[in-house]
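Study this protein:
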Amino acid sequence: MAQTRATPENEDRLLGAARDGDENAFASLVEPYRPELHAHCYRMLGSVQDAEDTLQEVLLRAWKALDRFEGRSSLRSWLYTIATNTCLNLIARRPKRVLPIDYAPAPLKPAAGVHSVEGDLLRHDAADALTRMVGAAAKAGVGEIGLQSGYRSFATQQRSYAYQVDLRGTAKADLVSARPGYSEHQSGLTGDLVACTAGRCGSLDELARSAQGRWLAAHAWEYGWVVRYEPGRTGETGYLSEPWHLRYLGTELSTAYRAGGFHTLEEFFGLPAAPDYHR
């Protein structure tokens, strides 16, 4: 049976008691979040046993760090951040596994009701989330949002990167195009979005100046998406600003990302800066 979460008043009372060293209060405080935290760890680790073990570590870390919880985000978001970082630490200790160059997530599908310019495929959960987000934008009256490009195969990445190298040279190409095998688009969790009017879509560069672009910057996180490459973050991500390039995280992580005031996935996941990711 699902646990009922405490009211804000009771949660504050339990939090205060837990900070004073009351282990029972801490157990009552976090118990309602255990099932979803376990599910989150399982999604990241792919192992029920690893998820169970990691959840125990997550709660131990939360207990020890409770004095540092300042309430700037919700308790739920704070616990998700600890869980995500703990899972990533475990993943980093695992033997490295290299995906084949012909990797494609399954199942891939088009985002229903979304105008597609080039590649219309995304991983199924990202496709469904994009449909919901585009529908919400239209309902809000900001206009139509289209998908310029979704999933990209290794071969497509080769062609795209070669074109950018011919156009700009290698050093500048690396700031705007992933090297083959390193593109987030191959995950099926990334979409390049554009603003459209009556089925005709503008360029990627025009999105940021449009009502659709401003709406996405403010609301994409509500549907599990975040703007991946923000201005002034090249030293962390390796890329120039791309307001059209959105990455699907799922609503649990995107909510924690937003609440924590993060601007890069490197910062959010506690990863090293990646300007030289390909070396």
Observations:
- The longest helix spans residues 75-93.
- The mean pLDDT is 90.
- Residues 108-268 form a domain with the Muramoyl-pentapeptide Carboxypeptidase; domain 2 fold (CATH 3.30.1380.10).
